[in-house]
Amino acid sequence: MAAAPHRTPHLQQPLEQSPEQRRAADIIRLLMLYRPLLDVFVIDFFTDGLWAQLPPAWQPALASATPVQLAGLLGGRGGPGAAWPLSLLAFAAAARALAFPRGCPGGSPRPPCQSSHLHPLLRRHVKPKKQHEIQRLGKVGVPCNPLRPPNAPQPPNSPPSPQLLQRLSQATGCERVVDIGAGQGHLSRFLAFGLGLSVTAVESDGRLVGLAERFDQELLWELGKTRGLGHKRSPLHPLTPRAPQHVAGRLDPAAPWREFLLPPNPPAPGPAARNPLGGPGGSEDGGQVLVTGLHACGDLSPALLCHFARSPAVAAVALVGCCYMKLSTAPQPPGCPLGYPLSTSVAALPGHQLSYRAREAACHALEEYEGRLREGSPHLRAHCYRAVLESLIRAADPAKRHLGLQPGRKAHTLSFHQYAHLGLPLAGLDPTGVPLDSGAVGAMLEQQHKVVAFCTLGQLLAPVIETLILLDRLLYVREQGFHCALVPLFNPRFSPRNLVLVASRTPLATVLAGLDRDSADRDSSEDEDLGEAESPGEGQS
């Protein structure tokens, strides 16, 4: 890592650029200046001397900063007594300005145990984070009252208004939804039973397909049992006895759109799945469909966008990506599509390449890390522990580098001595032969504050990298002649991958009008705890 930002070559750009193209180019300039922060692993902090490679003007201020001051640097809200070098302030300000707005991380620091805005039967087996996402993606907003002051809270028991997927359904006239990567079918169940849509849930793991079908049958049984009997808390909307159709299959990114599905791997028993887009006009009934993917992992999101661009059967797409480090990048064998970059706009920019480490960093939860800094959480010691352990492993055997060690999910609750006794055997080393009580180990542990400061700099760039990846997808869709937008739909404190990419063959203005306002209105009201215990069958699994 260089001791100062790198000089970048002049990037030749067309005279006419969209704001999104300019933002992508500016992001790449920033990443080229500070690329050393992107491509290093924190576990190499001691073995590679990462601290000494920071700009010299930054080192004293970062070394003396408290966790609360680092949180202020990360969130742009200042900190008590912080005196940062101007170059560091400029770096932080540029990173915040170029990252796509992530919405307001207000309200509780975590989602409620149970959400009162989902029918009790739809909350079964669903963790709080997923409940929050299903609400926002499906239907959770309230009608906008033009007479209500902008910042006034919504009155209690306000009737829900259509949210993103239901708005898309109404705008496109599509009542058929294909949920790709449906997992256990939680979103599919909400769309089918809760909104009455015709849903095909596609999942490559046959075990999850079986589990989803079992949950559907449980819900149908309960629905029949309680129909006409009422419920202790009246649901906002009654459920329809319309279960989703589950299909075991995987998406082939390189296949023509009519060959939408491949058999699952390993193959599932029984006949091959029917293609949900295989009818004369697209779907099985000849109509168009909406395609959605909640946390479509790695190459799945770009593959779905490519299918949307090629397939007239797909009227619109709503995607939430994740696991960016699993994206396929150059070089790839002939015939294998890239997951990044997709657009010709980004591909033409010098320096657009993103390393595995950079794409992994894009998956970080900035708001969660800022919260840990403000609270002085013991979780902050985990990176230092791992960096010290890496130093000890490399000293014992230089060939053992970057091993995927997981000494325990609660490593932050251990002393380093306990942590090392768990971690060293995973590397094939005997803890009794490693000098855990040496002065060198103690000196490294005393530098935990520097490791935390270094991690904070990486966290500043995480949303910028994610923005570049999502801008690439947005630009690709627009290059194909379609409409596209990025919407911060989830609370980033609950769901760090909170940006939904919406693509449509028709304009999106009506669909997106007031969506952010409706979501903000619900921040203080939608996620309250129910305040009473539910029966064991209605809790999360």
Automatic annotation (TrEMBL):
Coiled coil: none
Region (Disordered): 144-164, 262-285, 514-541
Compositional bias (Pro residues): 146-162
Pfam families attached to this UniProt entry: Methyltransf_32
InterPro entries for the chain: Methyltranfer_dom, METTL25, rRNA_Ade_Mease_Trfase_CS, SAM-dependent_MTases_sf
PROSITE patterns: RRNA_A_DIMETH
One Gene Ontology molecular-function label: rRNA (adenine-N6,N6-)-dimethyltransferase activity
Gene3D superfamilies: Vaccinia Virus protein VP39 (3.40.50.150)
SUPFAM superfamilies recorded: S-adenosyl-L-methionine-dependent methyltransferases
The Methyltransferase domain, residue ranges: 164-329
Record protein name field: rRNAD protein
Provenance organism: Donacobius atricapilla
Name of the encoding gene: Rrnad1
